[in-house]
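Morning!

This is the sequence you dropped in the shared folder:
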Amino acid sequence: MPKDVVVEQEIIEVDGNKFTVTRIPTATSGSWFVVHDAFEIWAAVAIDDFPGDIVGWRNPPDEKHRSGIEMAIKQAFDIPVQS
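The structure's back. Tokens below.
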């Protein structure tokens, strides 16, 4: 039987571009963060909620944009940033 899952959404801005990000919690301590608009999914990144480790990407952006998107997601969803 399907269960109800609450997801969160935020708008992030990276290099002057705005993206919608939906947080989908997983059964572990992490979440998938899906970068999308109303019609297309561009990428998804799995992040461990604490300590904020990047677990992996699905359809990752190029290196030029990846770190900016990761940082913006962490800031928008109050995930720790490793120093």
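Headline: The first helix runs from residue 63 to 76.

More detail when I'm at my desk.
O.
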